[in-house]
Write a structure and sequence with these properties.
This protein is of the alpha+beta class and about 800 residues long. It has 5 domains: about 130 residues, Bulb-type lectin domain (Agglutinin, subunit A, Orthogonal Prism); about 130 residues, Agglutinin, subunit A, CATH 2.90.10; about 150 residues, Hepatocyte Growth Factor; about 110 residues, Phosphorylase Kinase, domain 1; about 210 residues, Transferase(Phosphotransferase) domain 1 (Transferase(Phosphotransferase), domain 1). It is built from 14 helices and 45 strands. It has a 6-stranded mixed β-sheet with strand order 36-40-41-39-38-37, sandwiched between helices. Strands 29-35-32-33-31 form a 5-stranded antiparallel β-sheet, with helices on one face. It has a 4-stranded antiparallel β-sheet with strand order 1-10-11-12, with no helix packed on it. The N terminus is likely disordered.
Length: about 800
């Protein structure tokens, strides 16, 4: 350890003498105001002036903090409200009655208070005449008249600890989001009850930790002494250094901070005005190589790789073919520069467009996790060729042979995680990136393109020849179709017109659809957008195609171009969980849409058909809920133009022969309203499904669909309608679901459904997801991507609050 036993005991003794630090009392009833003149409203200083407690400006707002006040940087060591900054004139008050510190905004709303901690030594009868003090060691304390500690900042650290501070079992440090953003970030350092000191990456939405990337066992507490040593006291009573300064100087400040990038670093700084913080020691020694956990992105975001700086901190770079998600945040992950980059698959092993890719290599880099295929033995040529022929492969990692093993190839799909780079050669692997040839002229720094000008010219010549041949072939094919249509079917009133080449949609005449539906004879259903009729294309043939024809009612009378534009948007959507639009009719005032026919009808009839005592199988209902979520995710995030459905309900979910859920009526909301107004009078959502914002003067977003999905999810779970009957009284189903969840009686919600009760964990998960979806506040609802991931068990579901009360947790 570099210290003899006597010296360690001396250090530990010095550390324990925290009461020796000077302080000056702050009288109870005192207060501070954010943003006011420091001359009239100065922060509460320690006697030496080294530390201050008060308000600091932060992004045009203020945070309550403790900072080094005698140096220009004003380095923050503790904060109360980093995730909830306050406005000017917010107030901090030391209560004369309770000794509590209370932070309120200008309206009087409580933002934070120092409620009596579980570490308090104060007795109930000793909370009389308390006082507070900012100590010279950076600890702010509230003390009773008998000298017992009521509250102290050292027991509630944020990202930093100071000499004189101890972390005990159950304590933690949490990293900030960035060097200038004081919200909780992606990493924690914790001392667990089993004696493990661990560092974890945190999943943002649940605050749950992933597996530890750094761990030390048999630890009872972590301490920081006045000589600048961060040490561990082990369960057997022994001491060991964790972070050690090179030298000890009485003119130095020390701090140990869990940085936003996941490193825990001991810093020192001269107490003089001229100076800066110097990193002395960092753990882990190399955070880029420390991540061996399967989940999470690593110290850098997805699709990037980590390289260690000289100071032990990581620097992050995007993988070739990617650029930063946020140009101001190099740690936030990277996005693809090219659509369809290595992921455009119709089937496993597809070799489609394999000649349109070239490969670039980067040595000494690796993404060691999440490979989906391993080739062994392999040559580098075999590795590259296998990736070229595999539509799923975005990058291949090749490890050359050595004295004991043959070459190995790992193929990976996106996103890439836990990437690392080592310029010393410790990583004896080569990353082979598959990039589109059409972008081969783009300069990618640090890459060996692996191709010369002759290859490029040859590739260009082959590609040009292919395109010319393709154009000629397509020209004659289209001409042949025109000839066949003109000569073979000139008088067929029920024959389809040519498709729109952009959307694959067909234009019908009103007479054709009238004939196909036998005069709109058989009605399938009626909804907010119109009436649906069953039809048969080419009814003269035994192989006619069944269709569903929707006659749109009360549609906004737009011009021909505008209507076709909106229909084309619908026609460009392609997903297994959406009802396919075949074509349309626009003739005079008639507006009709032609859809594929769904043989199993609506989800409503599937769930609620008599006898109601016989419920559809639980497994089928679960799969239906997954399908609806995936369909909405596509509409919201993945299709070319975002579509808000605005009327999600069980009647608008249709089922095919295999009980695959398909969303209908998507994209029609825009046809039913003016471009500049979305009001309840224009879209009359079904009672029980309508999100609260329809009744308020606030913008409508995709979160209205999330709310309605939550209601449909409860219908699927319970096989009860959104307005259900409970003990002969009508109740709102989502209210009942929250009541059953709160009381731990989910079996009542499913009415003893054996399949659901036996699948208790999934049942609870689905109910919790539904409760998040039906939160009154849109910002509290998850996105459909998060809904889909939670439903399928890929990410954890936080415990939902009451849908009708506010919460600090948010999915927005």
């Amino acid at each position: 350890m570099g210290h003899d036993y006597f010296q360690i005991i001396t250090i530990f003794t010095l550390f324990s003498a925290t009461n020796s630090h000077a302080y000056s009392n702050i009288s109870f009833g005192s207060s501070l105001y954010a943003g006011q003149d420091d001359n009239n409203n100065p922060p509460w200083l320690s006697p030496s002036g080294d530390f201050a407690f008060g308000f600091l400006p932060y992004q045009n707002q203020f945070i309550l903090a403790i900072w080094f006040s005698s140096i220009p940087e004003k380095t923050i060591v503790w904060s109360a409200n980093g995730k909830n900054p306050v406005q000017k004139d917010s107030k901090l008050e030391l209560s004369a009655d309770t000794g509590l510190l209370s932070l309120t905004d200008p309206t009087g709303l409580l933002i934070w208070n120092s409620s009596i901690s579980r570490y308090s030594t104060a007795k109930n009868d000793s909370l009389i005449t308390p006082y507070a003090a900012m100590l010279d060691n950076g600890n702010f304390m509230v003390v009773s008249s008998s000298g017992d500690k009521i509250w102290e900042s050292f027991r509630y650290p944020t990202d930093t600890i100071l000499p004189g501070q101890i972390l005990k079992t159950g304590d933690l440090l949490w990293a900030m989001k960035s060097e200038t953003d004081y919200r909780p970030g992606r990493f924690e350092l914790r001392l667990l009850s089993n004696g493990s000191l661990v560092m974890n990456q945190i999943y943002a939405y649940t605050s749950n930790p992933y597996d530890a990337f750094y761990e030390i066992s048999n630890v009872s507490q972590l301490g920081f002494n006045d000589l600048g040593h961060v040490y561990l006291q082990m369960l057997n009573g022994s001491l060991t250094d964790l972070l050690t300064p090179v030298s000890v100087d009485s003119d130095l400040f020390f701090r140990a901070t869990l940085n936003f990038d996941g490193t825990f670093t001991l810093y020192s700084r001269l107490k003089t005005v001229n100076g800066s913080w110097n990193p002395l020691k960092t753990i882990p020694d190399n955070i880029c190589l420390s991540f061996a956990v399967y989940y999470g992105s690593g110290p850098c975001g997805f699709n990037s790789y980590c390289e260690l700086r000289k100071d032990g901190r990581p620097v992050c770079r995007c993988a070739p073919g990617f650029s930063l998600l946020n140009s101001n945040d190099s740690y936030g992950g990277c996005k693809m520069d090219y659509k369809g980059f290595g992921q455009d698959c119709n089937e496993v092993g597809s070799v489609k467009n394999e000649d349109f890719y070239y490969f670039s290599t980067l040595t000494g880099v690796d993404w060691p996790l999440t490979a989906y295929e391993k080739l062994y033995p392999s040559t580098e040529y075999d590795c590259e060729n296998s990736c070229r022929r595999d539509c799923y492969c975005a990058v291949a990692i090749y490890q050359p042979p050595d004295n004991s093993t043959d070459g190995t190839c790992w193929k990976k799909r996106l996103p890439l995680s836990n990437g690392r780079f080592d310029p010393t050669g410790a990583i004896n692997r080569t990353a082979i990136f598959k990039l589109p040839k059409s972008n081969s002229s783009i300069d990618l720094p640090g890459l060996d393109s692996g191709s010369n000008s002759d290859k490029d010219k040859k590739g260009t010549l082959i590609l040009s020849s292919f395109l010319v041949t393709s154009v000629i072939f397509n020209f004659f094919s289209i001409a042949a179709i025109f000839m066949a249509a003109f000569f073979l079917y000139p008088k067929s009133k029920n024959h389809l017109d040519l498709k729109n080449p952009d959307t694959n949609l067909r234009s019908f005449s009103y007479e054709q659809l009238e004939l196909a539906t036998d005069g709109f004879k058989e009605e399938l259903g009626k909804g907010a957008f119109g009436t649906v009729y069953k039809g048969l294309l080419d009814s003269s043939s035994s192989s006619g195609i069944q269709i569903a024809v929707k006659k749109l009612d009360k549609i906004v009378q737009e011009g021909e171009k505008e209507f076709k534009t909106e229909v084309n948007v619908i026609g460009q959507t392609h997903h297994k969980n959406l009802v396919r639009l075949i074509g349309y009719c626009q003739e005079g005032e008639n507006r009709l849409l032609v859809y594929e026919f769904m043989h199993k009808g609506s989800l409503s009839s599937f769930l609620f058909k008599p006898p109601t005592t016989i419920k559809p199988p639980w497994k089928d209902r679960v799969n239906i809920s997954f399908g609806i979520a995936r369909g909405l995710l596509y509409l919201h995030d993945e299709c070319n133009t975002q579509i808000i459905h605005c009327d999600i309900k069980s009647q608008n979910i249709l089922l095919d022969n295999s009980l695959t859920a398909k969303i209908s009526d998507f994209g029609l909301a825009k046809l039913m309203m003016n471009n500049h107004s979305r009001t309840l009078t224009q879209i009359r959502g079904t009672r029980g499904y309508v999100a609260p914002e329809w009744f308020k003067n606030i913008p409508i977003t995709v979160k209205v669909d999330v709310y309605s999905f939550g209601v449909v999810l409860f219908e699927i779970i319970s096989c009860k309608r959104s307005l259900a009957m409970k003990e002969e009284e009508s109740v709102i189903l989502s209210d009942w679901a929250f009541e059953c969840f709160s009381d731990g009686k989910l079996e009542e919600l499913v009415d003893g459904d054996v399949g659901a009760v036996e699948d208790a964990a999934r049942l609870e998960r689905m109910v919790m997801v539904g409760l998040w979806c039906v939160q009154d506040e849109p910002g509290l609802r998850p996105s459909m991507r998060e809904v889909s991931l939670m439903l399928e068990g890929i990410i954890d579901v936080p415990v939902p609050p009451c849908p009708y009360s506010s919460s600090v947790n948010s999915f927005s």
